[in-house]
């Protein structure tokens, strides 16, 4: 399900501009808003020289310009990624997550819990942490996943700190007959020991 849409968010430039007008952010002659002498601006660091990453950042920059926000792109070396996140040297930052959980919502707390290293905005609270743990404790994926989708929508409705940008496709190719190979690309076949590698090989 689209948890972001279910939480009440939508792409609406006119409404966003109206909210900013009411909040006292006045549009300047250069198309950037100001309030009390402060420009409506921020930095979005990008890492490396991947053309797709740059294009994605420029789309975000263009969309924010439509509401009078000056998003400055800050290209950095790939080696600066970890330091930038640790020191929170950014105003807006994009991260990629891939789902590798065979059991429902194993990584939900890693993304959303208040003290998680991946919750860079630190915008959650103990109440949501407890509710996430309740969902994690449900015994089957059939129970966990609908409960997690509902809770995720509530998390997004209450907090602006973590929002999905898009859900991309996952594409894999293999020769006919390959059997039981996990799709996880970067942690090894056993996924930290969570996924047992059984009967891996070729079908007759």
Fill in the CATH topology of the largest domain: Dipeptide-binding Protein, domain 3
**What average pLDDT do the residues reach?**
85
- Written as H for each helix and E for each strand, in order along the chain, the element string is HHEEEEHEHHHHEE
Instruction: Report Rg.
Output: 21 Å
Q: Briefly, what CATH class of the largest domain?
A: Alpha Beta
Derived from helix and strand composition plus strand pairing, the structural class reads alpha+beta
Report how far the terminal alpha carbons are from each other. 38 Å
Strand numbers in spatial order across the main sheet: 1-2-3
Description:
The structure is a single chain. The protein has 204 residues and is of the alpha+beta class. Helices cover 34% and strands 12% of the residues. It has three domains: 1-94, Dipeptide-binding Protein, domain 3, CATH 3.10.105.10; 103-168, no CATH class; 169-204, no CATH class. It contains seven helices and seven strands. A three-stranded antiparallel β-sheet has the order 1-2-3, with no helix packed on it. Strands 4-5 form a two-stranded parallel sheet. The longest helix has 18 residues, at 141-158. The two termini are 38 Å apart. The relative contact order is 0.12.
């Amino acid at each position: 399900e689209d948890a972001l849409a279910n939480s009440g968010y939508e792409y609406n430039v006119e409404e966003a501009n109206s909210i900013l007008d009411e909040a006292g952010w006045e549009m300047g002659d250069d198309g950037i808003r100001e309030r009390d002498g402060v420009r409506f601006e921020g930095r979005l660091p990008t890492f490396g020289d991947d053309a797709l990453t740059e294009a994605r950042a420029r789309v975000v920059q263009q969309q924010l310009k439509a509401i009078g926000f000056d998003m400055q792109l800050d290209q950095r070396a790939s080696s600066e990624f970890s330091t930038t996140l640790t020191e929170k040297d950014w105003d807006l930052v994009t991260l990629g997550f891939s789902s590798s959980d065979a059991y429902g919502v194993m990584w939900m707390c890693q993304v959303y819990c208040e003290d998680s290293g991946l919750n860079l905005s630190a915008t959650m609270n103990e109440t949501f942490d407890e509710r996430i743990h309740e969902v994690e404790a449900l015994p089957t994926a059939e129970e966990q996943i609908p409960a997690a989708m509902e809770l995720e929508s509530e998390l997004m409705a209450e907090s602006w700190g973590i929002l999905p940008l898009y859900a991309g496709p996952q594409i894999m190719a293999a020769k006919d007959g390959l059997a039981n190979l996990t799709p996880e690309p970067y942690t090894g076949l056993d996924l930290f020991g969570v996924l047992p590698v059984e009967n891996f090989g070729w079908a007759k």
